[in-house]
Amino acid sequence: MKAPVTLGLYGLGLAAVFAASFAVGAAVIPAELSETWIQRVEEPTHPSPSDHDGGSLNNHEGTEK
Q1: Higher local confidence (pLDDT), 51 or 17
Q2: d(CA 10, CA 7)
């Protein structure tokens, strides 16, 4: 086979695998589980740098130069 045909078939097969995976995931995984996961991801888990050192990543107050 020529390279363009081979690459085209590879791309088509890859798209088919992704589509099948999406369809199986939508059919097998309950919607409530994905909603819970999305809520957990959207909640902040770490404070921002401005919460604990005045917004500077290199806060060297009190150090001698």
Answers
A1: 17
A2: 5
C-beta of residue 53 within 8 angstroms of C-beta of residue 59: yes
3-state secondary structure the chain: CCHHHHHHHHHHHHHHHHHHHHHHHHHHCCHHHHHHHHHHHHCCCCCCCHHHHCCCCCCCCCCCC
Could you tell me the residue ranges of all domains in the chain?
A: 3-42
pTM: predicted TM-score of the whole model, two decimal places: 0.50
CB 16 within 8 A of CB 8: no
Structure tokens at 47: 């404070």
b vs e for 41-58, b when ≥16 Cβ sit within 10 Å of the residue's Cβ? eeeeeeeeeeeeeeeeee
